[in-house]
Amino acid sequence: MPMRAVDRLGLADAVTVANAAVGFLAVLAATVDLALAARLILVAAIADGLDGVVARRRGSTPAGPYLDSLADVASFGVAPATIVGGAALAAPAPWLVTAGIGVAALFVAMAVARLGMYTAYDSECGETVGVPTTLAATVLAAAVLAGYTDPILLVAGAAVFALLMGSSVRYPDLHAQDALVMGLVQAAVVVTPAVRAVARALPAWIGEGFAFALLFLATGYLLLGPWLYWGDETRRREADVDRL
Question: What is the DSSP annotation of 201-238?
Fold first, then answer.
């Protein structure tokens, strides 16, 4: 029996579908090991950047934008929300358990809404409205790997991100070289435990160092991107719009 997915989807779509599968694994991992779940989210983030590179080099299909948003729901909506919900469920305070579950559900809902609007209105632009789900998930994952696993902190952070995803703040797309740097740091965070397992002489702080570096980069873009990152082409486009 021929597989329609093989006939109609391209290589970039295959990378996107793999992103969704990794997101599912992150959800499962969040029930037993928050750090493993965080690393899997970063693997999904790398795949999310890679599918764009493959699409530009090998071409894309009409299904690509829809698959991308669907995969992002799993990897950057449900997976980080499961980390937050899991951390809250382990908390001794009943109010924190309730708040954590509610915030996790709100995070997923806002991620779905934002990704749907992105596909409908922003996918062809050089900017996006609201905090990108990939950025929110990356910050939460990096925070967990840097040691910030207090349930109150994770719940509060997820609540803020849920609101920011639905905001009207505009974020420019990362330049290719900056996206590459971010991807390399994400990869370093992911592979450091395996490297240390082989080369035991490496100090433990190296892994945390990469996690802090990723947290610094992602938080910097989160806070400064809407105001300081716009390129000349985007400024010219905004000026043309203002003149109309």
Answer: TS-THHHHHHHHHHHHHHHHHHHHHHHH---HHHHHHH
CA distances to 96, 149, 154, 202 from 164, rounded to whole Å, are: 21, 21, 15, 38
Cα 45 to Cα 23: distance, rounded to the nearest angstrom = 9
Amino acid at position 194, single letter: A
- Residues contacting residue 69 through CB under 8 Å, at least 6 positions apart: 115, 116, 118, 119
Check residue 208 and give its pLDDT: 80
**pLDDT at 125 exceeding the cut of 80:** no
Identify the structural domains of the chain with CATH numbers, from first to last. 4-232 (1.20.120)
Rounded to whole angstroms, the Cα distance separating 86 from 89 reads 5
Q: State mean pLDDT over 141-169.
A: 94
Q: Which tokens in the block code for residue 102? A: 């509610």
Nearest CA among 122, 28, 29, 115 for reference residue 73 = 115
Torsions phi, psi for 237 (to 5 deg): -65, -45
Mean pLDDT of the chain: 85
Structure confidence by residue, pLDDT tens digits, 205-217:
677 889 999 999 9
